[in-house]
Amino acid sequence: MLQISDFMQALQLTEISGSDSEFLEIESSDINRPGLQLAGFLEHFAHMRPQLIGKVEMSYLYSLDEETRRKRLDDFFGYHPPCVIICHSMECVDGLLDAARRFNVPVFRSIDDTTLVVLRVINFLNTQLAPRITMHGVLVDVYGVGLLMTGESGVGKSEAALELVKRGHRLVADDVVDIQRVAAGRLVGEAPEMIRHYMEIRGVGIIDIATMYGIGSVIKSKSIDMVVHMENWQRGKEYDRLGLTDEYEEILDVHVPKLLIPIHPGRNLAIVLEVAARNLRLKQSGYNAAKELVSNRLG
């Protein structure tokens, strides 16, 4: 459910007829232009979507006689769509607002043309209705690659991120990462508003990265392209040394490439993470150094 005030503010809408609720029950990011429905064809009516009325639909309503128009509007609003948006700042045909009030359907007006309103509504709803999850970790933009560092508290995630920031990369979120699936196969992470641009360094406390290193050292959101899980090195445990096997972590039904990095004193994590980001870019472009080496040896 979406708050009507947020919906109006984000899409620059004016309310011309309200409802008893402060919320809109919208479950899909799709919209509907109800030309067929206003013409009387109500089969397969996508009534749970926001309804957009442009010049074509409004002109058609004006062409109807009063009795027919009233019946068509009653049939249309009787399906209780979540809302109706009138585009082009058009004045409503007689009877439209009366029908909306009878069926308790909010009506908004936009000054923009129909195509622009369609794009804005879809983009807004895609973001608002995207599946979400919150994870403990640190998200950093390294060479354009979003690295999500995970691991137990105290393993060194924030310190590694701080070193990356010093080397010119950008912090997205420290400690808590809000993640949403904005499209099939694409995750985007950002920091909660309250702690955005802040980082906790053990022994030092809370620091403001944007103030300390400049606004160019932070970014509001970033796609999650790789998960880097950090753990303290364990004697006797086998770690991948060649990189021939690709591992993934599933987040919101998206399989994200994953690396397991053992931590031990003296290891420069910032450089390792930079290499991991560059290597992912190479793999995405079709080059895998480990497979190339094996292929050359076998050849």
In short:
This protein is α/β, with parallel strands linked by helices and 299 residues long. 32% of the residues lie in helices and 29% in strands.
Write the layout of secondary structure elements.
Blueprint: E1 2-3, H1 4-11, E2 14-17, E3 23-24, H2 35-38, E4 51-53, H3 55-63, H4 66-77, E5 84-86, H5 96-102, E6 107-109, H6 114-128, E7 132-142, E8 145-150, H7 157-166, E9 170-183, E10 186-190, E11 198-201, E12 205-208, H8 209-213, E13 221-223, E14 226-232, E15 247-251, E16 254-263, H9 269-284, H10 289-298
Parallel strand pairs: 4-5, 5-6, 8-14, 14-16
Antiparallel strand pairs: 1-3, 2-6, 7-8, 7-9, 9-10, 10-13, 11-12, 15-16
Overview of this protein structure:
This protein is α/β, with parallel strands linked by helices and 299 residues long. The protein contains 10 helices and 16 strands. The protein is 32% helix and 29% strand. A hairpin with a 2-residue loop joins strand 7 and strand 8 (145-150).
